[in-house]
Write a structure and sequence with these properties.
The complex is a heterodimer. Chain A is an alpha/beta fold. Chain A contains 20 helices and 22 strands. By secondary structure, chain B is of the alpha+beta class. Chain B contains four helices and nine strands, in the order E-H-E-E-H-E-E-H-E-E-H-E-E. Chain B has helices at residues 15-25, 54-66, 96-108, 129-138, and strands at 2-10, 32-37, 43-51, 70-75, 81-92, 112-116, 120-127, 144-149, 153-156. Classes of the chains: A alpha/beta, B alpha+beta.
């Protein structure tokens, strides 16, 4: 006999059966029956955030760090609207997430009831799919569909809106866990077309100046290992997008660094000059391609992606392959190893000679003798102190680019940042998610004094759950990236980009019950980092007072080509 | 280029808004859109007329396919197909001569007068969009009181069929 459960109990029991470890949430009227069902049970840990945006990013950070879906629970109305930024952030980066939102009772939907919003309508453009459950008998199967859709194909957030009467504790129905799900309208392709795979391998082997360009899809499909194998087998240069970092080891000599607007000179030049480009799990975002008219002008392009709509969206490609990155790369590797064709060794040697010449420009050099703390140096030291193996979340702006450029990620799922939506406020809650996923690991949140204030309230969450994050605040008293653009493109008119009346971050950290350290001299950076990471059970807020005038280089202005880079104020290309 | 996309989708609340929302969010044109349940009440059939370059149409088709509620779709204009639109038009028809003339026009276009009052006719007309346009132009312009058009619906000719 199946057990008889109320809607609220079904949600909790379902999540248990689904193997969910954590729910990130915030209670409120319409969600109270669900919260009551959560009370007293031990299997699922509910993490109480201080703002629903934080719940979204924390669930997202957990998902990015583990590959498992993040789960959040919010109430109706403002609970949902606050969650939207978190949902949209996950959507833009294809992060698997299930959002359960309370809704006003079905009988009053549409009457402008207290704390009512059309959650399904508001979230529709920023979810992979969403549901309104009007009958408790549909609850378990809908939740199963939500997890299935969120985690398969190109992942993404799915919202399940549950009116309060559907979770009524007095209405009990038989519950059994729906172990499987089938949707006639949703069957994502995973196996690539064999003919296309063969064409891709042939084209790759015919290259004289090959280039591999990979993105977040490699991380999402757990394809790092096979990507690394195939890249080494071929001996080709590889670059990664902001979202792809870590899925090929940054310390490897075949890695040319990140590409795009703030990518390395060698990566961008190789993109521009290559004759065959192999794009894997990347979507030709405008921050990557620059002006698409000048994008890899001489290249024949192979594009492997799970989402057909990513193919030929921004750039026309010659050999499209729709399929799961990991599966298709495995198949390609098999073909490469079983065939008798090999890469063109002499052409490759010449190509690498050219690349080394570009590399010798040392495009990311900065003043290492400055009397002010250079933000790049803080990230380099952070990498040293953590052995390059920490989970690093970031917010959005200059610090994000420096973290991406200078940390040197060697493993996937270590680098957590809002690449697509560019959400300030992401870093701290995302770090919470990562720390809960891997409690013993070093977790750093690289942020700036502007971004950190967008979700600073989550410091309280960190205390409640004893999360020993290390917050690396690159404090330049400016919204750095805004200031940089204003300097370059608005004749240094710094309109509203100065952060006036900043709090005393050390005092603030202490007020929240944490440790705060201010660091003002370059010579103290490493010591402070070591001291902080030695405190294994405390959150330490490190406030680094950095050079206000430092800019992120190299830089390609929006709308320019990969070959039109700025290196630094003193070093322009001919 | 004008394209006609036939879509078979789950007959669920919100499915229509997902399609409409996709078009507005991505800046695609909708010239017309009709939707109604099929013989299988769990499915709706939609006919959507849009226009754009080959690249845009390719994206529209891919994005529509990506919607979880969309079961299957077909570009009708890729092959031989039939298009129909229905129009109801209410015209002022007061004196005998005008009434005669309007009735004759309706006959020429194979329309039917479906409602008659002392002062009005309501004419029903079915055809492709061009024929409906032509009828509207043929009517004395000052006589038109109200028009309502169903939007285009379409089906492929021959064996080609959009079904599960």
């Amino acid at each position: 006999m199946p057990v008889e459960l109320s809607g609220g109990e079904i949600i909790v029991q379902f999540l248990r059966d689904e193997g969910v470890e954590y729910i990130f949430g915030y209670p409120g009227g319409a969600a109270l029956h669900i919260y009551d069902a959560l009370h007293g049970q031990q299997d699922i840990r509910h993490i109480l955030v201080r703002h629903e945006q934080g719940a979204g990013h924390a669930a997202d950070g957990y998902a990015r760090a583990t590959g498992k879906p993040g789960v959040m629970l919010v109430t109706s109305g403002p609970g949902v609207t606050n969650a939207v930024t978190g949902i949209a952030t996950a959507h833009m980066d294809s992060i698997p997430m299930v959002v359960i939102s309370g809704q006003v009772p079905t009988g009053v939907i549409g009457s402008d009831a207290f704390q009512e919003v059309d959650a399904v309508g508001i979230t529709r453009p920023c979810v992979k799919h969403n549901f309104l459950v009007k009958d408790v008998r549909d609850l378990a199967s809908t939740l199963k569909k939500a997890f299935h859709i969120a985690t398969t194909g190109r992942p993404g957030p799915v919202l399940v809106d549950v009116p309060k009467d559907v979770t009524d504790p007095s209405v009990k129905i038989p519950y059994t866990y729906p172990a499987s799900v089938s949707l006639r309208s949703y069957n994502p392709v995973t196996r690539g077309h064999p003919g296309q795979i063969k064409r891709a391998v042939d084209l790759l082997l015919s290259a004289k100046r090959p280039m591999i360009y990979t993105g977040g899809g490699v991380v999402l499909s757990e394809a790092s290992e096979v990507l690394t194998e195939i890249t080494r087998e071929l001996g080709y240069p590889i670059t990664q997008t902001l979202m792809g970092l870590g899925s090929y080891p940054a310390s490897d000599s075949q890695f040319l660094g990140m590409l795009g607007m703030h990518g390395t000179y060698e990566a961008n030049m190789a993109m521009h000059e290559c004759d065959v480009l192999f794009a894997v799990g990347a979507r030709f975002d405008d921050r990557v391609t620059g002006n698409t008219e000048h994008f890899s002008p001489n290249a024949r392009i192979i594009h492997l992606d799970i989402d057909p709509s990513s193919i030929s969206k921004n750039v026309r490609v010659d050999v499209p392959i729709v399929g799961d990155t990991d599966q298709v790369l495995q198949e390609m590797l098999r073909l490469l190893r079983s065939g008798d064709r090999h890469p063109d060794g002499s052409a490759l040697k010449e190509w690498w000679g050219q690349i080394e010449q570009w590399r010798s420009l040392d495009c990311m050099s900065y003043d290492r003798n400055s009397e002010l703390i250079k933000p790049q140096m803080v990230i380099e030291k952070l990498s040293e102190v953590t052995g390059g193996d920490a989970y690093v979340s970031s917010d959005v702006g200059q610090h994000q680019m420096w973290a991406a450029q200078f940390y040197g990620f060697n493993k996937p799922r270590r680098w957590l940042n809002s690449g697509g939506l560019g959400t300030m406020g992401f870093g701290l809650p995302a770090a919470i998610g990562a720390q809960l996923a891997d409690p013993k690991a070093d977790v750093a949140c690289v942020t700036g004094e502007a971004s950190i204030q967008m979700c600073i309230q989550e410091l309280s969450t960190c205390l409640q759950y004893m999360l020993p994050l290390k917050i690396i605040n690159l404090n330049n008293r400016y919204m750095g990236m805004v200031r940089q653009w204003q300097e370059f493109f608005y004749e240094s008119r710094y309109s509203h980009s100065y952060m006036d009346a900043l709090p005393d971050f050390v005092g603030l950290a202490e007020a929240y019950g944490h440790v705060g350290l201010r660091v003002e001299r370059p010579g103290d950076v490493e010591g402070a980092l070591r001291e902080a990471f030695a405190m294994k059970d405390r959150l330490v807020f490190l406030d680094f007072i950095t050079d206000q005038t430092e800019n992120v280089y190299p830089m390609i202005e929006a709308g320019k080509g990969h070959h039109e880079m700025h290196l630094s104020p003193d070093r322009e290309l001919a | 280029m004008r394209h006609i996309i036939a879509i078979l989708m789950e007959n669920e609340s919100g499915a229509l808004s997902r399609v409409a929302g996709l078009f507005s969010a991505r800046g695609y044109n909708i010239e017309s859109l009709t939707v109604a349940p099929t013989e299988d009440p769990s499915l709706s059939r939609m006919t959507l007329v849009t226009s754009g370059s080959e690249e845009i149409i390719e994206q529209i088709v891919k994005q529509l396919n990506k919607l979880v509620d969309v079961v299957r779709l077909m570009e009708l204009a890729e092959g031989p197909h039939i298009e129909r639109e229905m129009m109801l038009v209410k015209v002022r028809a007061t004196d005998g001569e005008a009434r005669e003339e309007l009735k004759r026009l309706a006959d020429i276009f194979r329309g039917r007068v479906v409602d008659v009052t002392e002062n009005t006719y309501t004419i029903e007309l079915t055809g492709d969009a061009e024929k409906v346009d032509a009828f509207l132009q043929a009517l004395p312009q000052t006589s038109i009181l109200e028009t309502v058009r169903s939007g285009v619906m379409g089906i492929a000719r021959g064996e080609r069929a959009l079904r599960l």
